[in-house]
Amino acid sequence: MAQSQYDPHQEGQAWPLQGQEAFADRFFALVHESADLFWLLAPDGSMRDANSSWCIFTGQQTSQSQGKGWLDALHPADRPQIEHLIQQAIIEGGSQSMECHLRRADRAYRLIHLHAVPVRLRDGTVHEVIACGKDITKQEQSGQMSEAAVQLALKASGVGMWDWDLVTGQIYWTAQGKDLLGWSPTTPSTHECFLMTVYPEDREPVERFLARVVAEHTDYRTEYRVLWPDGSIHWLAERGHCISDSQGHPTHILGVIIEMTKLKQAEEGIETILASITNAVAHVDRQWCYTYVNSRVEEYTGQSREALLGKSFWTDLSECLANSARQVDVQTHLINDLLDVSRVTAKTLKLELERCDLVSLVRETVEDLRVTVPERSLVLELPEHVVANVLADQARIGQVVTNYVTNALRYSPTNQPVRIGLTLQENMARVWVRDWGPGLSKEAQKEIWQCFHQAKEVPVQSGSGKGLGLGLYICQMLIAEHQGEVGVESVPGEGSNFWFALPLTT
């Protein structure tokens, strides 16, 4: 009788016992040839079968590796990536690879090249994952890294490590990490215990900071204080990284901490010394950005320490230069006012009269002013399609408009606009400047046109308060030389409207 043959492609046909044994032998031979150990995982990442290669390599008993206990044999820093790798193999349905550190039975960590292969059923669903590991330690590194060696290296460097599982809420701390927090080996490794260890004043900022790290899935660095059980305060510097799954959901935060108490104490000592120096002292990094300024620098620049730190020295220098330029402008303006008064008194003031459009002249003057005070609102209300021809010295009329607008800006709130307009009245063109400052009394309206008069009862609300009280006097004289008129309409508490009028010409 002829022996029946097994057809692997015929659905429903049972595998002969001898065939099953032969297939298993071939499978194990293939795996052992290509891997040093292998194990089977369920779709949820739990251990389905801890075969002898796993138990011999890791030293774990079957009971220890069941469920997700097998993850304990991985280095803590590699666990989140391995779990993510398994999920990727299941979701994408294709094999995945990475390198990780697996603890051997002798407690030494070995560098393993891990290969995760999903096993599909006929309907396409993933039934399980075959994980194969190849020890590549000798290829990649000359020695072994035992857990004791890792701990010794971390302790020698003063670095502590931690791994916060955002799904379970559990935190794994290295022994050095617990030491830096002032914890005993038995202190519960929970987020709540960590927050209670943080210095009370830093607790809320640290909690907000970690929440932002989780929300933004980003690397971070920060500093904070912790309070040890003996009442001592210690500064810690921390750097970390947030890990997300394939759907973008954060699953772990890995971090390292190091104590910097002595550094902070040294900084405070240096700060005290520098603060006692009466000269301006600053420090910049290689990018010329401020890393330290003392109070004299704050006074000199007119900016707070918080505003200066991190700012480019050159940017700050060009503010300083702008301030110096403004001071020069103020001094030049005062000198020019005195010269103008002397010319008016000596009757040597010369005007270069020419026919010009007063509408265009006012518009150009205000546009120039907008460049010098970009933070203020100047509103123009000029008639459209109208030409107001006057016989005037354009520079001197521009001087009057500038003086009116500058006064309006100086004596009105910074959040209020200054309005500038022009209206035609019979044979006159009238230019006006309206502000919403404190306004003037009837008596003050008469006095402000006098030479060297300053309205002391009216507070300066922005800009420099320096002046000789000559601006409006000179404006009055200049307009009079143009055969025009000046005036002001004001109500205390409701602002002022300064104006001048020039005769129209054909």
Characterize this entry briefly.
By secondary structure, the protein is α+β, with helices and mostly antiparallel strands. It has helices at residues 17-34, 52-58, 62-65, 79-92, 137-140, 147-157, 175-181, 191-197, 200-216, 261-276, 295-301, 305-308, 313-346, 358-372, 394-410, 442-447, 471-481, and strands at residues 37-41, 47-49, 96-103, 108-120, 126-135, 145-146, 159-165, 171-173, 220-227, 233-244, 250-259, 282-284, 290-293, 354-357, 378-381, 389-392, 418-425, 428-435, 485-490, 496-503.
Characterize the structure shown:
This protein is an alpha+beta fold and 506 residues long. Strands 1, 2, 3, 4, 5 and 6 form a six-stranded antiparallel beta sheet that branches. The chain has a five-stranded antiparallel beta sheet with strand order 8-7-11-10-9, sandwiched between helices. The protein has a five-stranded mixed beta sheet with strand order 15-17-18-20-19. The protein is elongated. The chain has helices at 17-34, 52-58, 62-65, 79-92, 137-140, 147-157, 175-181, 191-197, 200-216, 261-276, 295-301, 305-308, 313-346, 358-372, 394-410, 442-447, 471-481, and strands spanning 37-41, 47-49, 96-103, 108-120, 126-135, 145-146, 159-165, 171-173, 220-227, 233-244, 250-259, 282-284, 290-293, 354-357, 378-381, 389-392, 418-425, 428-435, 485-490, 496-503. The chain has 17 helices and 20 strands. Helix 14 (358-372) crosses helix 15 (394-410). Helix content is 39%, strand content 26%. It folds into three domains: 22-145, PAS domain (Beta-Lactamase); 158-263, Beta-Lactamase, CATH 3.30.450.20; 351-503, Histidine kinase-like ATPase, C-terminal domain (Heat Shock Protein 90). Strand 3 and strand 4 form a beta hairpin.
